[in-house]
């Protein structure tokens, strides 16, 4: 089926949607993005994603071509037009397409931002089978830039990290800087020891995950202890359970870290329970 996508004010078949070769997203990775999950045809935590988008834009001095209210309507219209039951909506805003390539930012009055949205249908997104199996991760050096809190489209290194994991027969990579885990290539990283969840504290070193915020809140409501601090690969390997969170994988158990099996090589009970709570609560609050 040909998707209907959104480009700069127009709903178009994906085959007719175009962006200029001078777009700074294409030439300079000068753009930000968000991915919002869809369950039961509704958006999960849209408000969180919209708030983070506004922050990413403002940190880069980039204008939004639409209001957050308009953005919600565009998301909903795309979900409706494409009949998405379970899946995601991808959104990207770039600093637009000036007349030529130049390192200097264009005048926003003369060069409007580019906005693109498209849907991804993922039937079975919320099904528990993959989660029970969990994922295997390797550790790699974190060589990304210093503003990982801004959700930019500079995804080459995370993409290389996934390829390194694949080559090693694993699913993903956790990145390590100065001896401590920062995050996964496209998710936040955690381990569980006893009743305690440990994850790195928020700073410019990691993306402030929308799923992370919700899961830590639900964990505390479920009487689990949450400790936000630096941790090492060795500490996570010695834990009872480990997991990652992201908008499209929710809570995903990690069953192996650099060849060391955790929770008997299958999804741990606490991580799976947190996944269940997260999905149930998110469905209730979806818009
Ligand atoms: N860290 C990184 C590097 C990511 O790319 C993502 C997913 N975009 C996350 C964490 C998780 O963020 P969220 O829960 O908002 O999807």
CATH architecture of the largest domain: Alpha-Beta Barrel
Helix share bin: 25-40%
Main β-sheet: number of strands, strand sense, barrel status? 9 strands, mixed
Unreliable sequence segments: none
Annotation field: number of helices = 8
How far apart are the first and last residues' alpha carbons, in Å? 25 Å
Secondary-structure-based class equals alpha+beta
CATH superfamily of the largest domain: D-amino Acid Aminotransferase, subunit A, domain 2
- CATH names the topology of the largest domain as D-amino Acid Aminotransferase, Chain A, domain 2
Order of helices and strands: EEHEEHHEEHEHEEEEHEHEEEH
DSSP strand content: 25-35%
Secondary structure tally: strands:
15
Features:
287 residues; alpha+beta; D-amino Acid Aminotransferase, Chain A, domain 1; D-amino Acid Aminotransferase, Chain A, domain 2; nine-stranded mixed β-sheet; six-stranded antiparallel β-sheet; globular; binds 4'-deoxy-4'-aminopyridoxal-5'-phosphate
